[in-house]
Amino acid sequence: MTRITCRQLSPGVADLDSNLEMTTAAIRESVTAGARVVVVPELATSGYMFDSVEEARSVAIRPSHPVFADWAAAVAPADGVAIGGFAEIRDDGLIYNSAAVVDASGVLAVYRKVHLWDKEKLIFTPGSVEPPVVDTPAGRLGVLICFDLEFPEFPRSLALRGAELIVAPTNWPRESVPAGERVPEVTVAMATAYSNHVAIACCDRAGRERGQDWNEASCVIDQRGWVVATADESGVATADLDLNLSHDKSMGDLVDVFGDRRPELYEALTHATPLISRPTL
Amino acid sequence: MTRITCRQLSPGVADLDSNLEMTTAAIRESVTAGARVVVVPELATSGYMFDSVEEARSVAIRPSHPVFADWAAAVAPADGVAIGGFAEIRDDGLIYNSAAVVDASGVLAVYRKVHLWDKEKLIFTPGSVEPPVVDTPAGRLGVLICFDLEFPEFPRSLALRGAELIVAPTNWPRESVPAGERVPEVTVAMATAYSNHVAIACCDRAGRERGQDWNEASCVIDQRGWVVATADESGVATADLDLNLSHDKSMGDLVDVFGDRRPELYEALTHATPLISRPTL
Fold first, then answer.
1. Residues within 8 A of A (CB atoms), B 253-272 only
2. Chain B interface includes A117 (CB < 8 A)
3. CB-based contact, A118 to chain B, within 8 Å
4. What is the DSSP string of B189-217?
5. Residues of A in contact with B191 (CB under 8 A)
6. Sheet strands side by side (includes A2-7)
7. Closest Cα to residue B170, out of B205, B142, B122, B143?
8. Which of B161, B27, B8 is nearest to B103 (CA)?
9. Which DSSP string do the residues of A56-90 spell out, in sequence order?
């Protein structure tokens, strides 16, 4: 069994030093509590509600930044892995909404968010590379960031490439939903887990930032699509999962959710463009 | 607004005459009650729990069968459309798990289920053509059958081709789910509606057939992913929806769930084959 912990932190916008300290402490505490996979939110080192590109740039860091060595030291005792979001600046001067996958050896992979949400488009450059599947000491992880999950092509791709666990740092803006309903992002994650037989850990954030609240809907979902952990009052969502189960795509002797795919009939999914031949009234 | 009604019938296995009469009566009643789109279950004319291919063949019909003229007459007063499942026999002698889309003029389209579930594979030949999007007097409909919904490529394709409403005749075998949870098929349909901004009507079936119970989870889901109708005690799920809303893929000024797609990064979805480089322990 692998203990997976999401830490629903409350980063301060543009408060780099405090955020670095908070994320490292959260990862260290989680490992002490037995976690081997620790997920912190999207843009955990930078905050989210930037007033300008300049403000975001002021807290954008590189994968060589010492914080990732701190995360590596924090996961080392468990031979574990930490995944978290950061504002990344590259040599071209552009900034990205990125996530790092860090084990005891350092940064294993960086993913740059492809599907930017709303005003992120005014701040960040979208990634141009598909999300990675990373072999880590704690399992084969696929990485997405927030809105990426709502494009079924992306989690499907990760699962087809053998991901045992999809880790998704998120910042889900607060929504009102009908009584008794989950926020739609969690419904989407459950359906994704179910259709792909893959476990998913979504780490949302907490706290109000420049007037913005969040769903605070962190969850760990097993490979059959059931929510097995949500955030407790201290913002910790933790569950023990057998990640090997994500390799079993069968449902009885005659059903296999991957073997039953008909990729020769899926061309339209990749190439079709929206067809609106009837005007919207 | 368009009234959409799912009729959660209980067909008898291999009892063709009764099933034809029941489906036609249900469509007629629904139209009298104001429906313009009426959905009846998967294999509504034939039943489901066949003992043999021969038994299925004994009740397999062609799109030229008079029952579809009866359905056409039933929807004519509303200039409506009926969608329902039937066991189809073709000139090659093979039988298919099919669905017909019927308006007052007759059969507009036939779809043959591509993703056969479990023992269906021992009875039916899988379809080899992608599901259709059909312009009908009551809207542009995309057609799937049951397990097809769990392959996100298919509903995505229908939505990208402009479907305003996905209609899905189903036979969902009874599952036990954790307290307070929906059956996973409905969660998948909600996520599908949400991610694609498309309305979905799933018509499940009722009744015990050769020891098999069903989820009886028929639902109408709006284009934002909310369940707006489930089956009442008489097995009727009905809702009025503005299907034009399915053309609006925006979420605020800067988000468009289709415009934000990055198809150039989705190749893996179509072509990847499962990669299992780590043996399952």
1. 254-255, 257-263, 265-272
2. yes
3. yes
4. HHHHHHHHT-EEEEE---S-BTTB-B---
5. 184, 187-188, 190-192
6. A106-112, A95-103, A81-89, A37-39, A2-7, A236-241
7. B205
8. B27
9. HHHT-B-TTSHHHHHHHHHHGGGT-EEEEEEEEE-
Q: What residues of chain B, 166 to 205, have a C-beta less than 8 Å from chain A?
A: 178, 181, 184, 187-188, 190-192, 194-195
Nearest 5°: phi and psi at B168?
Answer: -135, 95
Q: Do residues B155 and B120 lie in contact, with contact meaning Cβ atoms separated by under 8 Å? A: no
**Single-letter residue type at A170:** T
Beta bridge partners of A221: A200, A227
User: Residue A227: how many CB atoms within 10 A of its CB?
Assistant: 21
Query: Pick from A52, A41, A127, A125: which is nearest to A82 by CA?
Result: A41
Tokens (6 digits) for B255: 């988000």
Q: What is the pLDDT along chain B (281 residues), one digit of tens a residue?
A: 999 999 999 999 999 999 999 999 999 999 999 999 999 999 999 999 999 999 999 999 999 999 999 999 999 999 999 999 999 999 999 999 999 999 999 999 999 999 999 999 999 999 999 999 999 999 999 999 999 999 999 999 999 999 999 999 999 999 999 999 999 999 999 999 999 999 999 999 999 999 999 999 999 999 999 999 999 999 999 999 999 999 999 999 999 999 999 998 987 555 544 443 333 33
Task: List the beta strands (DSSP E) in B90-185.
Answer: 95-103, 106-112, 133-136, 139-143, 165-169
What is the mean pLDDT of each successive set of 10 residues along chain A, which is 281 residues long?
Answer: 98 96 98 98 98 97 98 98 98 96 98 98 96 97 98 96 97 96 98 98 97 98 98 98 98 95 78 40 31
CB-CB: which of B115, B190, B269 is closest to A153? Answer: B269
Q: Is B81 exposed, middle or buried (0-12, 13-18, 19+ CB in 10 A)?
A: buried
Q: How far apart are CA B114 and CA B118, in angstroms?
A: 13
State ipTM: 0.95
Residue B238 CB contacts under 8 Å (≥ 6 apart), including other chains: B3, B4, B5, B6, B30, B33, B35, B220, B229
* A211 vs B22: CA distance, rounded Å: 57
Cβ count near B195 (within 10 Å): 23
Query: Count of CB atoms within 10 A of residue A16's CB?
Result: 20
Half-sphere exposure of B135 (CA within 13 A, CB side): 5
Distance between CA atoms of residues B192 and B167, nearest Å: 12
| Residue B276 to residues A7, A137, A167, B80, Cα–Cα distance (Å) | 30, 16, 19, 48
Predicted pLDDT at B154: 96
Among residues B46, B226, B187, the alpha carbon closest in space to that of A190 is found at: B187
Which residues does chain A have within 8 Å of residue B160's beta carbon, measured at their own beta carbons?
A: 268-269, 272-275
Single out the residue of B21, B26, B42 nearest to residue B87, CA to CA: B42
Contacts of A234 by beta carbon, 8 Å cutoff, 6+ apart:
none
Which pair of structure tokens corresponds to residue A99? 């996530």
pTM of the model: 0.95
